[in-house]
Amino acid sequence: MRIGIGAIAVFLFFCLCGVPGLFPQSRSPAEQREDLIRLLAGQGVSDAKVLAAMGKVPREVFVEAPYLDSAYWNTPLPIGEGQTISQPLVVALMTQALGLKGGERVLEVGTGSGYQAAVLAELARDVYTVEIKSGLAKKAQARLERLGYRNVHVLVGDGYRGLPEHAPFDAILVTASSGKIPEPLLDQLSEGGRLIMPVGSDPYNQNLTLVRKKGGKLHTSVLGEVAFVKMTGEAEAVR
């Protein structure tokens, strides 16, 4: 995943951190997190609670062993099965757009490594996260349990239709792209709630789209250009 406004920041961060495997990392993960937070704050992440959450979650726990040295690069990294752990800037901006206050029920579609779910868990009451690939879901759940996140509920399944048995949700975050926002997800959004996801059919360029439900009506805005993997499962049949 990428977001255009972070391109220069990524380059500068690479220069600071070095190339994975070429130079050893001398700074501790905690120190690298501090560097990352300063970078995020300079790239439009202004919510102090979001920055605090990003500073608390140990990203190195959610990356695969070959990429540990680059855990705090502002870039996506492979996690297997054709998926990635999201770019920290994208995670922070999407989380910030939800405007979480602390008492919300949140649905995440696309658990992946579990990193985004951990960040959401720092800010919301309950996080329900759905992953279509059982292998990724199992690893994510193990990581989240290891870190003590008891308010994250990992489920295996196709998130296109959400989780009607647990709806409504105050916030919904989708980590895969689709040509349009799935209607079931909009139906499961509570009054006053927010949904954010990448929308578009181009695999390399989608619109990061925020939907607010107010007075029973949906209000949509575009926050920027991104590139996410495509939503699989039922979403493929309705493109």
Number of domains: 1
Share in β-strands? 25-35%
Mean pLDDT: 90
User: Residue share in helices?
Assistant: 25-40%
Number of helices: 8
Q: Which structural class do the helices and strands define?
A: alpha/beta
- Which regions contain 5 or more consecutive residues with pLDDT less than 50? 1-24
Strand order of the largest sheet: 1-10-9-8-7-4-5-6
For the report, how would you describe the main beta sheet? 8 strands, mixed
Sequence of secondary-structure elements: EHHHEEHEHEHEEHEEEH
The total count of strands amounts to: 10
CATH fold-level name: Rossmann fold
Q: What is the global morphology?
A: globular
What's the layout of helices and strands?
Layout: E1 2-3, H1 7-17, H2 29-41, H3 48-56, E2 77-80, E3 83-85, H4 88-98, E4 105-109, H5 115-121, E5 126-131, H6 134-146, E6 152-156, E7 169-174, H7 183-187, E8 189-199, E9 206-214, E10 217-227, H8 234-237
Parallel strand pairs: 4-5, 4-7, 5-6, 7-8
Antiparallel strand pairs: 1-10, 2-3, 8-9, 9-10
Task: Give an overview in words.
This protein has 239 residues and is of the alpha/beta class. The chain has one domain (2-237): Vaccinia Virus protein VP39 (Rossmann fold, 3-Layer(aba) Sandwich). Helix content is 31%, strand content 26%. It has an eight-stranded mixed sheet. Strands 2-3 form a two-stranded antiparallel ribbon. A hairpin with a 2-residue loop joins β2 and β3 (83-85). The longest helix is centred in the N-terminal third of the chain and has 13 residues, at 29-41. The chain starts with a strand and ends with a helix.
